[in-house]
Design a protein that fits this description.
Helix content: 10-25%
CATH class of the largest domain: Alpha Beta
Strand order of the largest sheet: 1-2-3-5-4-6-7-8-11
Shape: globular
Number of strands: 21
Structural class: alpha+beta
CATH architecture of the largest domain: 3-Layer(aba) Sandwich
CATH superfamily of the largest domain: Alpha/Beta hydrolase fold, catalytic domain
């Protein structure tokens, strides 16, 4: 049984949870409940007003049996994402989710993401799903219910388009989730150059290019959300891939076959990187609910085990991002450059880090040093003395060379762009 955290630790994590800064978030106002309806003793349907979306949207929350806000405990949360052409009702209506979790001490949150929303802030501006889910929904859940407001108490899973959602969120925000699972997931938008993205977006009125931009000119936006390209970021997340190969007695299911190929691509990439993960290629299987119910049954026990004995937050990690500014595991990177391109932060505990990219900027470390103490900071070959602030963070200027002039993956960029890696060593002034 999970214990309630000490008040100070709980307050610290709650403050952090309520101050997420997702890409594209334009509003500081949180979700407002417009309507709620109890569908059973455990299942509640909410209509909420989302500032990020600029509209109302719906979700369902499945509570543990006997849930009480007066209980002296905090429950873990599983965010369960639906696929294309479905909605927030799908998991609870089309599987035995409610019955299967009757004896499980966890909260299940099932948000909407449009028929073809792809769990991202659209390039066209029509939808801001990531800003809603990451920046508004998670803080609202942690303010509304007795749940553990920390990475150790959050996991995410999804099917098909929702598999992409689970992996893109976990790879772009690995400090938020202890585990991520994809069931028949469309987890590699490089497959067939993302044709499925544009096709499915049409179900929500989108035109080709509305989700991530035109592929020919904005490939970096596609890759900046793509789990295959961000696979290094998943090294700190417990990763599960489950998929059938599309074979059945009636022939090949092309949807499952395509998702099997995408899942295989990500599996091979993780394997290449030497990152442990669960790979469940179970052979014949179609893109249908009985298989996703099976996948959920196999995944939830592992999640419960992780919640009971969660791995500690990593002291070392790698994070790759197309964003010019990002926060991850308490580290903050701010880059000055005129174009979109990848940068990579490699942290090796308190000894220092490496940053790869172009242009200039600064890195603020996590609060892992002694407040007010002085430290030797060697950037490349130049050493200076830097004071840790009152939180124990160091702010370090970094020069990555001349900024590239052309957006990554365009023809001019392939011909002219370069990146530079700066190594930063940190040691205490007094040993």
């Amino acid at each position: 049984m999970m214990r309630r955290l000490p008040v100070i630790a709980l307050a610290t994590m709650l403050v952090a949870a309520l101050n997420f800064s997702p890409v594209g978030a334009k509003e500081k106002r949180g979700l407002e409940v417009v309507n709620q309806k109890a569908l059973s003793k455990r299942l509640i349907e909410y209509t909420v007003e989302s500032p990020a979306m600029g509209a109302e949207t719906k979700l369902r929350v499945l509570l543990p049996s006997g849930y009480s806000s007066k209980a002296d405990r905090d429950y873990p949360v599983v965010y369960l994402l639906h696929g294309c052409c479905d909605d927030f009702r799908s998991w609870s209506d089309k599987t035995d989710l409610t019955k299967h979790t009757k004896a499980m001490d966890l909260v299940v949150v099932m948000p909407d993401a449009g028929n073809g929303g792809w769990y991202t802030d659209w390039y066209s501006g029509a939808f801001n799903w990531e800003s809603y889910h990451i920046g508004e929904l998670i803080p609202w859940v942690e303010k509304t219910f007795d749940v553990l407001p920390a990475r150790e108490g959050r996991a995410i899973a999804g099917l098909s388009m929702g598999g992409f959602g689970a992996f893109t969120y976990a790879s772009r925000h690995p400090d938020l989730f202890v585990a991520a699972a994809s069931f028949s997931g469309a987890v590699d938008s490089n497959f067939q150059e993302g044709a499925a993205v544009d096709a499915v977006a049409g179900l929500d009125g989108g035109k080709p290019g509305d989700v991530f931009g035109p592929r020919a000119t904005d490939e970096i936006r596609w890759r900046g959300h793509n789990p295959w390209d961000l696979a290094e970021n998943l090294s700190t997340v417990d990763v599960t891939l489950r998929t059938g190969n599309g074979e059945s007695s009636s022939g090949i299911d092309p949807l499952e076959r395509g998702c099997w190929e995408m899942s295989t691509n990500v599996h091979n990439r993780l394997k290449e990187l030497g990152q442990k993960h669960i790979w469940d290629d179970y052979g014949p299987g179609t893109h249908t609910w009985p298989f996703w119910e099976r996948d959920l049954h196999k995944t939830l026990p592992r999640y419960l085990s992780l919640f009971e004995d969660p791995p500690p937050a990593p002291k070392s990690f790698t994070f790759r991002s197309m964003d010019a500014a990002y926060d991850v595991f308490g580290w903050n990177v701010q880059l000055k450059r005129p174009v979109l391109e990848f940068s990579k932060l490699v942290v090796r505990g308190s000894d220092g880090f490496k940053l790869t990219g172009s242009g200039s900027g600064s890195v603020s470390t996590a609060a892992i040093y002694k407040p007010g103490e002085k430290y030797f900071v060697t950037v490349g070959k130049k050493t200076s003395i830097v004071d840790a602030d009152d939180r124990g963070r160091l702010k370090i200027a970094v020069d990555l060379g001349a900024a590239n002039a052309f957006q990554a993956f365009t023809a001019p960029a392939r011909a002219t762009s370069a990146e530079h890696t700066v190594t930063v060593a940190i040691s205490p002034l007094r040993s």
